[in-house]
Specification:
- It is a single chain.
- With 250 residues, the protein is an alpha/beta fold.
- Helix content is 38%, strand content 15%.
- The protein has 9 helices and 8 strands.
- An 8-stranded parallel beta sheet has the order 7-6-5-4-3-2-1-8.
- β4, α5 and β5 form a beta-alpha-beta unit.
- α3 packs parallel to α4 and α4 crosses α5.
- It is globular and about 45 Å long.
- The chain starts with a helix and ends with a helix.
- It binds pyridoxal-5'-phosphate.
- The site of pyridoxal-5'-phosphate has 14 residues, from β8 and α9.
């Protein structure tokens, strides 16, 4: 079932690819597995998923430890032992990357930096400072995305679009974080066309940051598009999709 779902997602991406006449083979699919079992995650990995997204640190830690069979997720213990710490079914494949996609509280940062390859939900300078400090303690440079509240909805996390550039300037000075790009959660809509303008807005913001050369490196990642709207997101420039139901079912 999950493997078929992944196959269908890839078919749908291929259709967009030929319509746009653009190579989309490097688009990353993050399987968002909140509330899903370890068995379901394993099936997704067997189906070719290389990126796992979670939105609670504790749930992610538990699954991470079970999946890699180590009790204490000490940074470094992990895949410096590549092959031994991985599931047999994933041998000879890319190591699994873990993504934090939910709101991150500062008191959870210490654990978060131990397991996540990419923290997608950085929504304040204060949080970035804490990530920088905790990452420094374990000699890590933590990849992050900045979450932007493109729709301005009250109930959403994320920086206001017009404040992002200033914050990027400040965050770029932090030595133990690396800003990879931007992330947004679009509003729930019955029709993807309604959220397309928000995707466009995020892409414009990314382009502007790069034009202004605020960071010494380019920001390449645009994490947008979920189960109900990922085709529109790709058309507007998404490089990373976060898919829950499309992978695991309703
Ligand atoms: C759950 C979740 C997703 C996946 O949602 P689906 O609509 O099931 O694809 C993506 N991003 C975030 C931040 C989530 O919490």
């Amino acid at each position: 079932m999950i493997k078929e779902n992944i196959f269908k997602i890839k078919e749908r991406i291929a259709l967009v690819s030929s319509a746009l006449n653009k190579d989309l083979s490097r688009i990353r699919i993050v399987a968002v597995s909140k509330g899903r079992s370890l068995e379901q995650i394993k099936e997704a990995i067997e189906g070719g998923i290389t990126d796992i997204g979670e939105n609670r640190v504790q749930e992610a830690l538990t699954k991470y430890n079970q999946l890699f069979g180590i009790r204490d997720s000490v940074f470094g213990a992990r895949c410096s032992v590549v092959g031994t710490c991985r599931e047999p079914s994933t041998e000879n494949r890319e190591p699994i990357k873990w993504h934090m996609v939910g709101h991150l509280q500062t008191n959870k940062v210490k654990d978060a930096v131990k397991i996540f390859d990419l923290i997608q939900s950085v929504d304040s300078f204060h949080l970035a400072l804490e990530i920088d400090a905790q990452a420094a303690k374990i000699h890590k440079v933590q990849d992050i995305l900045i979450e932007v509240n493109v729709s301005g909805e009250q109930n959403k996390f994320g920086l206001k679009p017009d404040g992002v550039i200033e914050v990027v300037k400040e965050m770029a000075k932090l030595k133990n974080i690396n800003i990879r790009g931007l992330m947004a959660v679009a509003p729930v809509a019955d029709n993807p066309e309604k959220v397309r303008p928000y995707f466009r807005k995020l892409k414009e913001l990314l382009d502007k940051i790069n034009e202004l050369r605020i960071t010494s490196y380019g920001l390449r990642v645009l994490s947008m598009g979920m189960t109900d709207d990922f085709e529109a997101a790709i058309e507007e420039g998404a490089t990373m999709l976060r898919l829950g139901r499309a992978v695991f079912g309703k």
